[in-house]
Each structure stands twice: as structure tokens, then as C-alpha cells.
Design goal:
Length: about 290
Amino acid sequence: MASDVSLVSRLYLFDNDLKLGEENFADIVNKNILCLLYNEAGKNAFEDDVFRIFNHILVFENDYQANVIKILQKYSAKKYLIPDETMLALENVISIPEWFDQVLKVFESMIYNKQSVSEKILQIIADYFYLSHDKKLRDRLFHLLTMVDDNQDVSDEIFDILELEKASLVISSNLSDANHAIVYLFEKTKEGKRLTINGFKALSKVIDNRSKLNEEILKIILNTSNNEQIITDDLIQKLVKRFKPHKVQKYLLEIFENLVKNNQDIPNELSFKSEIGESVKNTTRHRLAMLTS
């Protein structure tokens, strides 16, 4: 026998049409049904009829998407599983930047509930992990990806992201196996893998802590620039500060050449060495002219 919630959900007006005279009452009916579903979320598992409403709204009805996401947040937080069809519908919404954080909470609960999530969702999470300047969000996303790796099989791409981040944290913390982590970053960037934000921070920290530029660190940065990944401004400034125009610094010069090729700016001046920027640009232009002649 169908539950009361399921029976009420069957009254949902998918065509948004309930006219009495000139007035359409569909919006009132549908909002009341969604309000009921929110109040009942987490008390018992929803039946298929309820999720059919959610799927329809997430795919076709922008007006009620916020209501559905709140219901699913509450429902999944109570450790109830989300059907695959609804997960697919959520994929369409999480890719919209203004909805990311709210939909992420649903997937976060799913992951904590040890429910498998799709590769598309993992890739979206990974993209935000790479691009976000919010440290708390990055830490949260890294933790989620780590949990997913424990819960299910992940692609090589997601696995590599996790290992790159772990290696970066080892380097930043100057742990005993930091040198092995540096070698790992070199090998992976040589293969075309992208550094994480913490990867750049780790390299920057090594440069700060050593009086002489570490050749292995420069090779990693060179690989990264060869991969056309944007080098952080902070790291560029530190490299320019260490650049000696009249010394042979092969890796540094190649890095600066790549910055020009990748349309990144080289600072025109820095503290204590305001003349370096233009000197680097001129040297780079000369080298590039030789390469293209």
C-alpha cells in the first residue's frame, strides 16, 4: 500500500496547469507538495513517485530547483540513498556555478554514506579543487576525493590528482620523504600532469627556504610551463628575484621563455631589483627570435 507521502506526491502538476477560471493554482499546489516533502524528508525513504518529481524539476523546472535541493540535502543527511536517475539530474545543476555549493552538500552526504558517485561529478569536484582560491573549500574537496577513493574505484586522473596533492603536502611539511615527493612531482609534470595550488605553494616554500635555487624544483616549474599551466604570480616573482641577467641559468631562462609563449606577464620591477623585469623580457625576446628564425 502506498504511503501518504507517495499518494500526495501523485497530485504534483507536471504541466503546471490547474486553472479555475482565469486563475492558475498549479504553483500553489506544487509548492505545498514540495513543502510537505521537505517536512517528511529523512523520516522514511521516499518512493519512486517522489523522485520522479525531483528528476523532472531538476531537469526541466528552474523555479523549484532550490526547493528540491534543500529536500535532498535533508534527505541525504539522514543517510538515505539517492537513486541513480536523481544523481544524473543533479549533475546538470552542479555544473551551474551559483548552485555548486548547495548541490555539493548533497553529494557530500552521499559520499559520507559510502554511495558511489559518477566520474562526471568527481571531475567537477576536481576542477573546483584546482581552481578555487578558498583554502577551506579546497581542503573539503580534497577530503571528499580521498573518501571517494576509499569508497569506489576512481579513474587514473582522479588518483593522480590525489597523489599530486599528497606529494605537495609532504614537500610543504618538509617531511623525511620530501625528496621522493619532489621526484614524483617532476615525473608527473613531465607526463603532462597539472600541479595543484598546494603544489605551487610547496615549490615556493622550498625556494624560500634555500639560499641556492634547487635544480629539481626548477625542472618541475619548467615542466609545468611546458604543459602551458599558468604559473602563480607569487612564484614568478620569486624566480625573477633569483634571476641574474649575466649568469647562465638555463632552466630559469627556459621558464621565462615559456611565460612569454603562454602569454603570462613577467614583472617589470621587483623589490631590490627593479631592472630585472625588462632585462628578462629583452633576453627572452632575443632567445625567442633565435628559436623562430
